[in-house]
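Posting for a labmate who doesn't have an account.
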Amino acid sequence: MKLSSILVTLSVAGLLAACGGGTSGEIKQDNGNTTPPVATSGSAQGFWGGKTTEGRAIQGVVLSDGGYVFLYSGINAPTTLAGVVQGTGISDKTVAGYFSSSNTVQFSLEKSTRFTGTVAATYASKGAFTGIVSTLAGSIGFDLPYDSTYSDGATLKSLAGTWAATAVDTSQTLTIAESGALTGLVNGCAQTGTIKPRTDANVFDVTLTFGAAPCTFAGQSVAGVMFKNKTGALYGALTDSGRQYVVPYFGWIKQ
């Protein structure tokens, strides 16, 4: 499915928007060989970050309920957002250390397209997360170390303040209050919402509503997660209920 617009194309943040309405015309998943080697048993939940086999920077999280989101950069361009991978997976209890997902959505900034596909991975609990994302856009291979800040307690105090897409860019900001209130501004589009710490990880559940024009999706809402890992930067991805478009936060810097 072609993305109808890319509202923000800065190197570290953006809104990737796909055409609305139903699933007709979606690009179907790639059913190629996606089975990685077997790893040790345990839980796949955690922050995972590093580089893909192509040389892309990648940061993401797998939650205790199997939900996951990963944001990746261009090849050898670690500060340039290239796409988001999001979905829900299952840690197979009968196959030690195997994680799989059949409802993967990839929002590709490089191809201006939304793809569906799969994730097949193995994991060593609090050790490594290794696998392949497969869609018609191609494959993204990864072998990522665990980030122990996932186990730190989530507090609004740790995120409170104003975050920006880059250290010098004030056209894209997000202000987080200790009360859990959110206010955002992206190229003149005002946003409001709420952020709530999860009790099972150093991750936050977020809802965001777009204001009036010039917002492309005026009055519409998105939801998802945000997190601050050991890099100290803010990451996250919010989607509409049909996962037709995504609002990503890729390495936002606290002001």
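Reply:
Got it, the structure tokens are right above this. The mean pLDDT is 85.
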